Amino acid sequence: MTDELEVIAAMVKAAGKPPSGYTAIGDDVAMVPPRPGRVVMKTDMLVEHTDMPPGMTYRQAARKAVAMCVSDFAAKGTRPDAFMVSLGLRSGVGKGEVDGLARGLRDAEERWGTHLIGGDTNEAEELVIGCSMVGFAHKVVDRAGASPGDVAVVTGQFGLPPAGLKILMAGARAEAHFAQRARKSVLRPDPDIEVGVALAPYLTASMDSSDGLARSLHTLAKASGVGFVVERLPAAEGVMEFAAANALDADKLILEGGEEYVIVGTVKPTEIRAALKAARKAGGELIPLGRATERKGEVVRLTEGGVKDIRDGGWTHLRRS
Amino acid sequence: MTDELEVIAAMVKAAGKPPSGYTAIGDDVAMVPPRPGRVVMKTDMLVEHTDMPPGMTYRQAARKAVAMCVSDFAAKGTRPDAFMVSLGLRSGVGKGEVDGLARGLRDAEERWGTHLIGGDTNEAEELVIGCSMVGFAHKVVDRAGASPGDVAVVTGQFGLPPAGLKILMAGARAEAHFAQRARKSVLRPDPDIEVGVALAPYLTASMDSSDGLARSLHTLAKASGVGFVVERLPAAEGVMEFAAANALDADKLILEGGEEYVIVGTVKPTEIRAALKAARKAGGELIPLGRATERKGEVVRLTEGGVKDIRDGGWTHLRRS
To answer: Is A321 part of any domain?
Structure first.
């Protein structure tokens, strides 16, 4: 068992010595040196009973809370500069768990080159980790810039995290290597800032896919006043076989699973080759899915049986379906 | 009952049209136009079972979550520019409660001249409101600048919120007018940015007092390497009588109550008259308590019976006392 002052000490240790111009943890506010552009901000909250599946450690939960913000920064082509963390800890939380959180925040600092600059400790009925991130940009890719004819693209395949959740939460069966990849995609989500930054000059619109591919396509369609025709679903390797073995709807896993940390966006057809090259150079990939159309808000896919609606499914907090 | 998309709609309505240079709510990230100086940040979290006493509405809880950040900005003499909110809502939360939260955020925007620029909605086992605030300053008053001989000051009297908590949570008896003031101090905490900004040029060290006066004095003493002698306790009107009527320890109410939103700081003796004048001009007050001493970490008070230790009591999350 530990108390607030010990939690703060663990966080100060995790943060290390602040870089020049940044304040050390431990005053009422934190300060970050300015860089050119506007201030970019994002806040997100990890809540134990919805965001922390069985098998996820405190260390992984802390890293994931930061990943949730990084994912949005990546989708906007912006490097995160620093972040703060608000903790809601269960009464009686142990030193091992607190050290785990501190290590997870350190993991995040190292993975994404960003600085933990402060936070706040509270007591709550379940683990809650609020992450607030700050960065700088003159302009970010928004959701409203897609035009009919633009190529719809994603920076990775879909379905692995939803499969991982089925394995962790419902004991779904899977071949060992697939199970390992699927679990890892849930426990150590890995949004890629470098790919986001490299792609930003080519994206006409973009967002992340933490609520699922279908939701991202519908949201971009509404914001941009376009529709989408999807020519092929971006299924991660092994997802079709996993779905078949567990009598699950593969299309639903790919379209509505959520917990994905892939960028969904649009690129002008004349720019697609340059964008593909830029993504590869940054160590990532870019997968064309289909096209934006003039049919506002209509998101459909081509199947062997013809055109089929993609419904606006996916994760909606507080919704009972 | 309501869902995430309806919550977002209520927040967009509360935020209103964004000022020039600010992004509207509804993209992956928010943007704030830069002002001169470094970026100042604070994050805090309101958790229902520790921070929301019986009788507090959702509207008041939302306003309080912002007040918790404003209090730190005020203590540092910095105007808040904008804020984001992460909500953890109970499953089955109603439209009335969500509208209450939105109205409370609007109240905060109007009271402190700051802008709601975005947020995040989640499901949690109790109400959780994370607030992250951003502003700009070249320099802020820190906790480490007090020197022996400096005058210890506060910007208000103490004991009213702890009395209010006793009334709301334990049914303590109180005279009607006092009870009303005490309850209001808990339900509508009112940190004063104008007083903080006016005082900043005179403060050698400062912090807020949300964990109680004793904790603030000990924290400033440790950070600055000084001690404090308190000559008189700053008791709010009626607190002594309230304590006596309810057989409570008045000193403890004043020193260790917490939930106070007053600035505690130090001022050079040669500056104290100018500081008093500046506080009054900003519509506030400044109360000298005593002096900083050379006795590192030692916080004492003068009583009729002689010198008495002030222990480092106050609110510590997760501590069982």
So the answer is: no
